[in-house]
Design brief:
homohexamer; about 210 residues; alpha+beta; Jelly Rolls; 5-stranded antiparallel beta sheet; signal (chains A, B, C, D, E, F); metal-binding (chains A, B, C, D, E, F); RmlC_Cupin_sf (chains A, B, C, D, E, F)
């Protein structure tokens, strides 16, 4: 009897702590509330379930029937509420033979790639214009330092699959060709700031749907 | 006369700065607005008073009439609005003779303990399974690196009192026994992931009120 | 025809990424939503325009017809919504001959000053009471480490102009004289905590409008 | 001729920038120099090669012929020099049927797991003693918030493989059983701080090789 | 026999992890190696003992036989090697009746004070020149936001004792009077940047030993 | 006499604090010691002078007699030792009429530009391929969020001058054209990852000196 009583005493004396501890444990994104520089607002811990911490969207093969023969399927905080505020996120890369993830950067994160099927030729360029390229085989891991231009390319004859993770819940993704040729970046300004020929710019805007 | 005028000029020319400067000075928690990964929303500076920066909840002796003969009284951001966003918080530890704060971690912060009354046997275990234990006397300070298992125990004959502070406004508190035996963690999974005997698990669940 | 189709496929397969990527690219301040320790809430990317990233308030000469013959015009997150969450902000300093930015600190940031017109005598004091003073000429850059007392003074015969930047979107600004003599800091407490004579305190409160 | 000259001018005028830019691009660990709170010292950029950014140690199946029928193969900054300072790292988990990664924490990081073969029963416990458990199938991703107790268990009939990543280059790994039973943690202190029976403690120390 | 063997297998398979995990657990200061922006270099984990995490220097009453009738005894990373890199530190404040810790700032940290004996009149000034003052009694906790001017004063008739902690391992300490009057800050520049009378400045320099 | 004595008492009682306080105040780069992820090692405070905090390298007009008719003169931590570890740095931009700073990113920082002479057409592209372009006049400030492609161009008839600052002591600088055409990035890989024509790539490599 006394034991039961004392149990209640502990539970009571520590309840105040537990009532808020979840705030620091995690902050599952509440997409209906405002977001700020650190991420989305937190869903009430009472409404959080295990499914908030599990994402199944990377289980399916991405659609590679497109011009790049590749697909990027993100599990960033906008798709995967559980990673909000935790400084990590993921994505799935599918590359058909000859497929390529065109030259791109993640403005807000470093990236780590793990090849789980096929082979992938991966590379990045540093600020001092050194190029670091390696063909990765199954099980190889490569890291791309934050914000640097990098690419992945399937030079092999079989479908390739890789999972990537990022040092931020929302790393961003700026694809060079899309920034230049799938935007309304005026052709004249592109030629002046890249030295590309206008004809080249117009040709790629035609393919990718850019204007200006 | 001219002096008075110039005063107004300064006040006016600098008013725009002051109208927002408090935002960075402090962000007293507004518990009625959404919270995010960095903490609670900020109460309007106009409504902030000195009492938002003072907490008296640690002044009273904690109730040690319980199974652990000890009490933890937190002054985290959920209790002490003024520490929100400032990267620091506190708690009071009361330990009756034989009292113990069971093995626990703070997932989000390092902890610093100062003994102000009695003696406390304190220790932590590092990732490489080294155990660091010392009996602290009045005035001694000990630090527990972030996220590591640690404990406090009053092996002396007199009541002990310590104040602890944390490198976060909300360090969290995961008490090992409560995580295992005061939760609905299935007994079978506990035995498989800790190698504890089922009988031991069931016995402690009986004491602490766990289910599963 | 097939090409056009594949374009749509890319656009679709990547749309989910782009729909949220802006969250990490920038978080333009929405002054109507709650703010938190990390800054203001983010305006919807759909409503963001280039004008959110441009601030023209530093283009006009500040009003130096005041007691300090100087003006500080801030472009902090409260004035310049585009810097919210980006860890940087700016201000314009105008100093007439003999003008001075009185001794002050920025509680939350380091400062970098660039002199673009005239000469400025600039200095700061470190925690070990060393004083670092230099007369900066046009084009000179000086850095003040975070939180330390510093000043700028125009000892030359011509108007001086400088632009400063900060390592925070909201560095704060605590001007020593205003904290002591333009506040309601009780004179008795000022004398006890600064060793200044009461007469000196009262004289400056008279000039700056302090009470208590 | 003039063109060649102007090229040299650009190269020269920008060389000073490039000579140090690598410092921020990356900081490949130099294990022979001192390390600090932020990680290892940086290897000279001139000595860095692509192989510093690629790690092949996760390509081989881990040895699961042990008591836990599982293996953890880390690619932290101590093994994978390229991730030093980048806020990310990885590990490979191999679990034979019935294999288990015992209850553990990563004191310094959140973890993201991707299942690439078999099924894994994964779970964690929050500070408020809620248990979040889910059986993950191939392609599922789960996140464990920083510092919380979690486990992985292969309840299926086939070998399971997962890759995990962390929000730190050195997340640490504290395995509960090893901290208690493979260390020199005195049995009496363990029983006092965990309420486990001495017999249980001694039994597991016997299995895992603990002393005290 | 087989059991013993398998134990060795675990120990071996996990040894590589443990050999470096301490790096993230803690980074005890090695005062003989270079220090950097994040703190001191790390002592080899093999040489670390529990005494690196315990500091007894705050156990003795500080010497208050001085002009301020008070003493500040720091346990920053320069005195307490164990807090290096952990984002927390401490200090002891002793105030005789009438004692005062003069107006000061900590450029790099927020501060939390706990009164353990006597009463202390504590206050700070915010960037918008609001003054927050309260007389703290035994057990009261107060927080001073980072970088703001604050003070502690013993207005009671008995010795006062407080322990303070900081949100940094090295918060710094800039005492206003010492910065102005115990330095070689030229009197003319002080008067120009503070509006204090030269006579006042010279008088306090005489007391505190300043030059210039 | 007694006064002099008490002065010594204060100086002594506080000396221990001051002996290390500079560590947090600043960490002037010591280029002869190892550097790490957080920056360069710190020069001994005893050897630091005001000249470590002042940089005059931005005072001279940059050499714009080159192919881009522009010059970038950095004051990053590698050139300006005083900013090491302070989270801020600067650069000077000179643009002759028609001059351009080609499309580039700063992988590790946000940038703030202030135009002090002439007009500059400035723009950046976000992750969702929106282009933000504005012609800045004297006194205008613009911010570029971290890691995004941006450019500056002098479309006016007169020399233009701007000072830029960054939210890091070493923001890095990756110029798109140099990464592609002044490196040894194999032409075939460039064409595959950018869809540029090989002829275009070879033409620009010829101009900029790239190989591969």
């Amino acid at each position: 009897m006394k034991m039961v009583l004392t149990i209640f005493l502990i539970i009571f004396s520590l309840f105040i702590t537990f009532s808020q501890a979840s705030v620091v444990d995690f902050c599952v994104a509440d997409y209906t509330a405002p977001n700020g520089p650190a991420g989305y607002s937190c869903k009430s811990p009472a409404k959080v379930t295990v499914d908030d911490f599990v994402y199944s969207g990377l289980g399916a093969v991405g659609n590679t029937s497109n011009i790049i023969k590749a697909a990027v399927t993100p599990a960033f905080d906008a798709q995967f509420a559980g990673v909000n505020g935790l400084g990590i996120s993921a994505a799935r890369l599918d590359l058909a033979p000859g497929g390529v993830i065109p030259l791109h950067t993640h403005p807000g994160a470093s990236e780590l790639i793990v090849v789980v099927q096929g082979t992938i030729c991966a590379g990045f360029v540093s600020s001092d214009n050194k190029v670091y390229i390696k063909t990765l085989k199954k099980g190889d891991v490569m890291v791309y330092p934050q914000g640097l231009l990098h690419f992945q390319l399937n030079g092999g004859g079989t479908q390739a699959l890789a999972f990537v993770s990022f040092s931020s819940a929302n790393p961003g993704l700026q694809i060079l060709d899309f920034a230049l040729f799938k935007s309304d970046f005026p052709t004249e300004l592109i030629t002046e700031t890249t030295f590309l020929d206008a004809a080249q710019v117009k040709k790629l805007k035609g393919v990718l749907g850019g204007s200006g």
